[in-house]
Fold this sequence. Notes:
The protein is of the alpha/beta class. The protein folds into 2 domains: 18-139 and 303-314, Aspartate/ornithine carbamoyltransferase (Rossmann fold), CATH 3.40.50; 142-299, Aspartate/ornithine carbamoyltransferase (Rossmann fold, 3-Layer(aba) Sandwich). The protein has 12 helices and 9 strands. Strands 7-6-5-8-9 form a 5-stranded parallel β-sheet, with helices on both faces. It has a 4-stranded parallel β-sheet with strand order 2-1-3-4, with helices on both faces. α1 packs across α5 (141-155), α1 (23-41) crosses α12 (296-314) and α5 (141-155) crosses α6 (171-182). The structure holds phosphoric acid mono(formamide)ester and norvaline. Residues 135, 170-172, 235-236, 239-240, 275 line the site of norvaline (NVA).
Amino acid sequence: MAGIGIPDTLKGRSFTRVSAWSPDELRLALDLARELKLERSRRKELRLLPGRTVGLIFRKASTRTRISSEVGIAELGGMALYVPAADLQLARGESTRDTALVLSRFLSAIVIRTFAQSEVEEFAEYATIPIVNGLTDDSHPLQALADAMTIRERFGDLTGVRVAYLGDGNNVCNSLLRIAARTGMHVVAACPQGYRPDQTLVAACREDAAATGGSVEVVDDPREAVRRAQVLYTDVWTSMGQEDEHERRLSDLAPFRLDEEKLELAGPDAVAMHCLPAHVGDEITAGVLYGDRSLVWEQAENRLHVYKAVLALTVR
Ligand code: CP
Ligand code: NVA
């Protein structure tokens, strides 16, 4: 349609985690996202999903995921339906299975933002439409796709790019490690003891990396991690749902702040990334976030393009 070819290979598939898609499938999404970004810059209308309605079921706050989802589906000629989970019968005990079965009769896809990864997986098991993970406590695959798109735009390729993640080994870190390993990047996560990404996940990422020529390391010295890195990435130290731990996290994670010194240590071509929302002065300094080596705003925009690509590829 309108010069953009959408293959059938991913139709009906869910995107519950980065590892749900093969390296080739991830690259397909990245290629389509690039095309969609270009067409949008030309103000071309691409009604790839006319008459489709996508449900957004959210249990947590969101700016980027919610708005890029609503705008993205509208730009593809469909309609978004935002539903706080608290307003559904789910909140009064209706099962995930029944909710998934019923909503599959009305909607063409569902984006879910919730706490437990298992809730997204359960939706995907019973729904007959694609389920897209809009963030859980364990993963944030749409963010990882946008991150990979942004890195590829900057460096021309993903293979061999050196990424250092600093701070909390959280959902965003997990998905970044996964996509880095699946696309042949060299990624180092510098996280203090107690904040390291899950060991099983790291082991699985290493298996992926062995096949793609990438590598995955976890260290506790942020300076060691940033030396020679081309991308310095950080995320909030207190994720949604961890507010009670805020004070402890502030002091434990302070040495991992993404600041000017670490950017200097990395080298003159290194860039800074952050999935946002940022907490200036905590995990990132204002100078880095708003500086000329920040890719953060492009990275945020790319959420829209990857979301549109995922929907265009999966929705029937
Ligand atoms: N990065 C991200 O997912 O932002 P939101 O929480 O605003 O959706
Ligand atoms: N790690 C953060 C990401 C927000 C987009 C959180 O889960 O709150």
